[in-house]
Amino acid sequence: MRGDGLPQALHDSQRYLDVVLKPQLSPTEAQWLIEKTVDNFTNYFNSGFIDYRKSVTEAGDYAAVEWTGRGATFKDALGRTFIDCLGGYGLFNLGWAHPEVVRAVQTQAAKSPLPSQELLDPLRGMLAHLLAEITPGDIQYSFFVSSGTEAVEGAMKLAKLYTGKSGFIAAVRGFHGKTTGSLALTGKALYRRPPLPLHPDIYHVPYGDAEAVEMQLRIAREVGNDIAAVVMEPIQGEAGAIVPPDDFWPRLRQICDAYQVLLIADEVQTGMGRTGKMWGVEHWNVVPDIMTSAKALGGGVMPVGAFMAKPEIWQVLNENPFIHTTTTGGNPLACAAAIAAIHVSLRERVAEQAATKGEYLLAQLRKLATQYSDFFEDITGKGLLLGMHFKDDEIGYAISAGLFKRGVLISGTMNNARVIRVEPPLVITRDEIDTVLDRLDDTLRSLRVARAGERNTDALVAVKDVAVAG
Questions:
Q1: Ramachandran angles phi, psi of 89, nearest 5°
Q2: Is 84 within 8 Å of 72 (Cβ atoms)?
Q3: What is the pLDDT of residue 462?
Q4: How far apart are CA 287 and CA 289, in angstroms?
Q5: Peptide bond before 197: cis, by omega within 30 degrees of 0?
Q6: Which residues contact 214 (CB under 8 A, 6 or more apart)?
């Protein structure tokens, strides 16, 4: 592409900037943007997304290309409105473009978007202080990154530095990221197998089974495997909003203490109020040794993640502050967003909102699951991290696609193909929840009618075949 490509890039970048700077598009401009986006994804990003995305396959003549949003609703480039029940896989706890978070970022951008790397960055210190105030127990220190998988990688590294050990115990169907260290913890062969070998000394056990964790630690002790930490999600997100038994996390804490290994809570998806508590582990009054956070920490405006730990564990980083560094992680824009996100979350009591709205939504979904028991297996979750479990993948896709056609964005999970996640912004209104439930009911009713028609057609064909044979 070099050579003649540079003048063309100058022209194209101007065209793209014109779009970025426009608050609204004309119908012609919107159609151009959609066609260009599909072409760019196909030729320069990943054509597989075009084959997979409902926004392309179910959106009619023109694919749905996101444009703007507020609260729990967003519009595509053509002005079509959707209720968001996906929440950016946990990004949008505060909804789309929360004005206070946006204002904090815009104001900071006009002063100092990125740090000097040599002077002290005040916002980094402010955010670290706030996290010490809102995390459970005596967790005190934080290191900031730009994503959840980086946070998990940092937690793993910290655990190894502190313990001098290399092994980890994680859960089947757990999800911790897709860079090679965090991917080694992730409990799904579909993602782990292609890039093998990954980080060594990783042992997986069934989620929610504390006895299996203890058995693995006992075996490790007998055969000489050094385990640095047990890493678990408080509630498994990508596996389908799986809530463990009530004694699971308290038992994990006891077992880790008994075997002198660290307990790491991966709160990338469950943190910042998603499950009805500020942190998922607070449902069981457990204090981990190390925690991770990301996704909603940036208020749905900036990418920011963190791994956090108790002072005695953090001492290994204090002794050598350059043993783990980042150029852009925890930059002033990201920290400004996180500071604003924490403030709004506490002031608006979004964790309590998630608990109340989640209890209502969970009860209504269970009613629908009973009414349409031919489709559903179960409804699981806490707060507004819920999973609709279906009898097969085909049903899940049909319902997801049907809801999209009716203006509701929803999607499956990465580690359990039969589950559709229900993970809306925590600021979703009761009226919006009821609208989603009505559209889900309509989708289920239509699917039942369609399947009945297919069965009648199959039966008629069978009768004709018998008649011909006779």
A1: 55, 35
A2: yes
A3: 54
A4: 7
A5: yes
A6: 255, 259
CA 373 – CA 363 distance, rounded (Å): 15
Cβ partners under 8 Å of residue 326, min gap 6:
144, 145, 146, 150
CA R_g for the chain: 24
Task: Supply the pLDDT for residue 56.
Answer: 81
Residue indicated by tokens 């022209």: 11
Other Cβ atoms within 10 Å of 262 Cβ, number = 24
Q: What is the pLDDT of residues 211-251, one digit of tens each?
A: 999 999 999 999 999 999 999 999 999 999 999 999 999 99
pTM > 0.70: yes
Q: Can you read off the two tokens belonging to residue 407?
A: 């203006």
**Do the Cβ atoms of 161 and 128 come closer than 8 Å?**
no
Q: How far apart are CA 135 and CA 118, in angstroms?
A: 28
Number of neighbouring beta carbons within 10 Å of residue 312: 11
| pLDDT tens per residue across span 75-133 | 999 999 999 999 999 999 999 999 999 999 999 999 999 999 899 999 999 999 999 99
Q: Given a cut of 80, is residue 70 above it in pLDDT?
A: yes
What percent of the chain shows pLDDT beyond 90? 90
pLDDT computed for residue 20 by the predictor: 95
Domains of the chain: 5-97+350-452 (3.90.1150.10), 100-347 (3.40.640.10)
Instruction: Give which of 137, 135, 217, 136 is closest to 170, Cα–Cα.
Output: 217
Tokens coding 269: 């998806």
Residues with Cβ within 8 Å of 299's Cβ and at least 6 positions away in sequence, in order, are 93, 94, 98, 101, 337, 338, 340, 341, 344
User: Angle at Cα 233 formed by Cα 230 and Cα 239, nearest 5°?
Assistant: 120
Contact 379, 365 (CB under 8 A): yes
